[in-house]
Design goal:
mainly alpha, 3 helices, 79% helix
Length: 71
């Protein structure tokens, strides 16, 4: 029991750094997507709506932050 818990705590920093890398990649992709839309000449309101609508983390955020009583 304690050996498994010890191994988990040794792997915890590696898991955290991998998750941080995924978040960094997603944020970079959103910035480049926004920049490309602005470079093509779309208005700022349209760009913000598209970036918000096509955000890949939005469904995950809704799932994680949803109150447990509602499905």
């Amino acid at each position: 029991m304690s050996l498994g818990l010890f191994r988990f705590f040794l792997r915890l920093p590696m898991i955290a750094f991998r998750m941080a890398g995924l978040v960094r990649i997603t944020n970079r992709a959103k910035r480049h997507f926004r920049w490309a839309l602005l470079r093509e000449g779309l208005p700022g309101e349209v760009v913000e709506e598209l970036v918000g609508e096509l955000d890949p983390s939005a469904p995950l955020r809704e799932t994680l932050l949803r109150p447990s009583g509602r499905q």
